[in-house]
Amino acid sequence: METPPDRSRRAMLSATALAGLGSLAGCLGSTSELPAVADAADPAAAETTAPAEQCLTDFLDGANGSDEYTERYGPDAEPTLVVGASPEGTDAHDAFDPVVARVVPGTTVSWLWTGYGGPHNVVALDGSFDSGEPIDSNGTHFEHTFAEPGTYRYVSEPDRDEGMRAVVEVAEPPSSDYPAVDEWLVNADGYDGTIPDRREYSTVTITVGSVADSDALDFAPPAVKLSPETTVKWVWSGDGGPHNVAFEDRDIRLDSFEPGPGVHFEHTFEDTGIYRYACEPHESLGQRGAIVVEEQQDG
Question: Measuring CA to CA, which residue among 185, 190, 236, 234 is closest to residue 3?
């Protein structure tokens, strides 16, 4: 019995993740209608941030340099975000890079100024962090430690109406019964700790460059559990450029980089164990996958 590419679940995960960042209902019609930056000493000012909790999609839709990509950082990461970045295809320096960063609780995030684009600052809309007055000095450094899960939106005050805004998402890292898988996939798009059990199937299909993802730099599903002697077929969606499949610490790989749709690689897993793999051109962008091979228990 063969499974189809797991695209419906991937789409559901994407929608769920987006919904978790802010309700899609009741969003503002204009991205210019941004709330004021909260003043911890002024409860009335803080209340003005409440509507924005319902309108994250509008907030990001107008963000300079936004490409719907989330840069994910694992538990040991020390992220440095750029202040005064230049969005691709422009000469302006009016963006944060990355626009959306996801970290785990307890992570200290640093912001580093390029010195271009005029004075900038880093100010959270909820008042939780503030770098101070806008400055334009190259190498200026500001940092904040995110202790609690949540979605933290911030702006550069001089450029907020022109789209210089970004988000730090803080969420617990994905967790399953397989720490080696969790560690490998901590930065993988779509992995939430769920490992579908496909041990009843003799053939399983994994999509390479999932059509449910705007960047198409993933595997769908990112992790799967199989029985020994199961054959896996990797099916290219045709999106996201050329991909390959290369296993970590195993002599299992596709040496060519295939851009077109179709089944370009398959392998039968005979031995139990955890198999970790990646698309080599896009591994640094989180295109990783994992396969758990286990005997199916009777009863």
Answer: 234
* Burial status of residue 279 (CB atoms within 10 A of its CB: 0-12, 13-18, 19 or more): buried
> 146-150, long-range: CB within 8 Å, 24+ apart, which pairs?
146/103, 146/105, 146/106, 146/107, 146/108, 146/109, 146/170, 147/105, 147/106, 148/105, 149/105
Domains in the chain, please, with CATH?
7-14+174-293 (2.60.40.420), 63-170 (2.60.40.420)
Q: Is residue 1 predicted with pLDDT exceeding 90?
A: no
Q: What is the dihedral of CA 16, 17, 22, 24, to 10 degrees?
A: -40
- Residue 217's closest CA among 193, 234, 196, 237? 237
Output the 3-class SS for 143-170.
EEEECCCEEEEEECHHHHHHCCEEEEEE
**Segments in 154-238 forming alpha helices (H):** 179-184
Give residue-wise pLDDT tens across range 249-294: 999 999 999 999 999 999 999 999 999 999 999 998 889 999 999 9
**pLDDT 10s digits, 104-153:** 999 999 999 999 999 999 999 999 999 999 999 999 999 999 999 999 99
Other CB atoms within 10 A of residue 149 CB? 11
pLDDT tens-digit series, residues 86-113: 998 889 999 999 999 999 999 999 999 9
Q: What is the pTM of this model?
A: 0.70
Q: Decide: 234 and 258 in contact? Cβ < 8 Å.
A: no
